């Protein structure tokens, strides 16, 4: 149920759950190590009552998306390739729309989510961020939605820290100037330890506060 927009200029907190989907959890087509362990932490955040608004992003690729290794003869998953003339990591087929792999994790309290923002539908460009594609040409509209609701603080978490979570947090900071952005570390998991460490340092260097769920729940 969508909560009321901020019309009185008060602090308004939102929670962004990035790509907590079957495809990125154990048993999925592109599993993040321990990806399912973010679900109970995310549910605690949802249930806390600390957030005026809860939104989620959902990878929602068409079959044969250009980021899939299977769309490039001779390429294997996790090799670098080219998509629309630009370097592109080649991924296993994952989160194809209208498949079980693309659904939000069944234990996630999806009924409490106010908006699910789908992304990655253009077969010619990948979309890590919940806010825009990787070329930064096409916006999903999520930033406009959050600004229209009067959001002043945004906590970001989910899968995977070193890709979609990082880029979503950085885009939130850039596309919504003046909004405080925080990364909830224990409600997130990444693909590699090195990638996670680099992503956290990148976010911190750009002014994103790194917190855990206990601090998030404390306000």
UniProtKB/TrEMBL annotation:
Lineage top rank: taxon: Bacteria
Pathway stated in the Swiss-Prot or TrEMBL entry: Cofactor biosynthesis; nicotinate biosynthesis; nicotinate from nicotinamide: step 1/1
Range of residues in the leader sequence: none
Assigned EC number: 3.5.1.19
Domain Isochorismatase-like, first and last residues per copy: 14-214
GO biological process: pyridine nucleotide biosynthetic process
Transmembrane segments: none
Enzyme class: hydrolase
CDD domains xrefs: nicotinamidase
Gene3D superfamilies: Isochorismatase-like
UniProt keywords, alphabetically: Hydrolase, Metal-binding, Pyridine nucleotide biosynthesis
Molecular function per GO: metal ion binding; nicotinamidase activity
Family stated for the protein in its record: Belongs to the isochorismatase family.
Protein name as annotated: Nicotinamidase
């Amino acid at each position: 149920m969508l909560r009321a927009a901020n019309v009185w200029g008060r602090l308004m907190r939102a929670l962004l759950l990035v790509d907590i989907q079957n495809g990125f959890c154990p048993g999925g087509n592109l599993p993040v190590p321990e990806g399912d362990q973010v679900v109970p932490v995310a549910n605690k955040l949802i249930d806390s009552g600390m957030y005026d608004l809860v939104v989620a992003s959902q990878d929602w690729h068409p079959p044969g998306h250009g980021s899939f290794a299977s769309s490039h003869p001779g390429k294997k998953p996790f090799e670098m390739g080219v998509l629309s003339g630009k370097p592109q990591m080649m991924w296993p087929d994952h989160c194809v729309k209208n498949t079980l792999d693309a659904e939000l994790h069944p234990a996630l309290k999806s009924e409490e989510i106010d908006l699910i923002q789908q992304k990655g539908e253009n077969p010619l460009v990948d979309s890590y961020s919940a806010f825009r594609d990787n070329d930064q040409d096409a916006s999903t509209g999520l930033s406009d939605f959050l600004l229209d609701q009067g959001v002043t603080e945004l906590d970001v978490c989910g899968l995977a820290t070193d890709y979609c979570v990082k880029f979503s947090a950085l885009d939130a900071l850039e596309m919504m100037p003046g909004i405080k952005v925080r990364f909830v570390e224990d409600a997130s998991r990444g693909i590699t330890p090195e990638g996670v460490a680099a992503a956290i340092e990148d976010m911190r260097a750009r002014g994103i506060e790194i917190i855990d769920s206990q601090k998030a729940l404390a306000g």
